[in-house]
Amino acid sequence: MAGTDDEAVAAADDALYVLTAVLLTPAQFPSVLGDDYPEACAALGLAPRADGYGLVLGQDGDGARWTVVIDDVSLVAVAIASWDCGMEYELSPDERAVVTALPGWPLAVAVAAPGVPAPHDPPPETAGGPALRPPDTRVWGSAQRRLGADEIALQWAAWRGQINDADFSAPAERAEATGSSPEGEEGTPDAKGTPGTKGGAGASAGGHAGVRRVLAQARAYVDSPPPLGRVRSSFAPGDARTLRADGPGWSIVARTDDIAFVLLDDEPGGVLPVGRGPELPGLLEALDKMAVRPL
């Protein structure tokens, strides 16, 4: 594990200018790092602690990037909530809460500390190992797919507004029109059911084999629970929940009272809408019951 020796911790703790912080817990973790909580922890060389961690990203007095891992999750949660409300909050973890200090940042940070050199990796003699760097999202892949799902969850109303419910045809209607069996088609839109183009995304999900595969794998989660954090449930307006599920090469974002969107590694930039149909509501309800939720 990079930067776990006392020298690295001391270097990071010496006048660390905190820039931001994120939670690394089963219910809330930077999904760009992995499809589930254990995978995200492994990306940082951390054991998947049951209570999770807080990640404090900052610069030392020389401008070097450091990620300080602490076990005081509630402290980081309070800081994030305060910042989100536009309030000032000085995040100063007790040194007893520090688990380790990792050189570099695992996430992209757009700001820098004033009055110190520009952000850079710590020198090797101080870092104690390779510096963390954000995953490359310049090309489509797993990391960018998960970031796309994050955006849809965050901007649900905007994405949902691009879908006309009339574009979703019932399975029986499609079967009658095509003479085919509706089996395996339930819950998918016809060829017109697309979210349009936004940020380079947009694709049709009508009869999409990849979507059927994803829904089948998501159903399997109900009987055989996946690694912790692959299914997460968070707040949504009304009595609904925002549901997020990930798997090998795919992500689902859904509202329990509405439709779902599917993103695939092998569909660069594609966002595939899935209509409710007769099966999707039950699937979402079952996944929500097994999902981990923020405390």
Unreliable stretches covering 5 or more consecutive residues: 170-204
Distance between the termini: 29 Å
Strand order of the largest sheet: 5-6-7-8-9
Number of domains: 2
The overall pLDDT, averaged over residues, is 85
User: What shape does the CA trace take?
Assistant: elongated
Oligomeric description of these chains: single chain
Helix proportion of residues, in percent?
25-40%
Q: Element order, helices and strands?
A: HEHEEHEHHHHHEEEEEH
Whole-angstrom Rg? 21 Å
Structural class: alpha+beta
Number of strands: 9
Task: Give a quick account of the main beta sheet: strands, pairing sense, barrel closure.
Answer: 5 strands, antiparallel
Number of helices: 9
Could you tell me the strand content as a percent range? 15-25%
Protein name: Integral membrane protein
Describe this structure in words.
- The protein has 295 residues and is of the alpha+beta class.
- The protein has helices spanning 6-13, 37-43, 73-84, 124-127, 142-154, 156-160, 171-178, 209-223, 280-290, and strands spanning 17-24, 53-59, 65-70, 98-103, 231-235, 241-247, 250-255, 260-264, 272-274.
- A hairpin with a 5-residue loop joins β2 and β3 (65-70).
- α8 (209-223) packs across α9 (280-290).
- The radius of gyration is 21 Å and the shape is elongated.
- Residues 116-125 have a biased composition (Pro residues).
- It comes from Streptomyces dangxiongensis.
- Residues 196-208 have a biased composition (Gly residues).
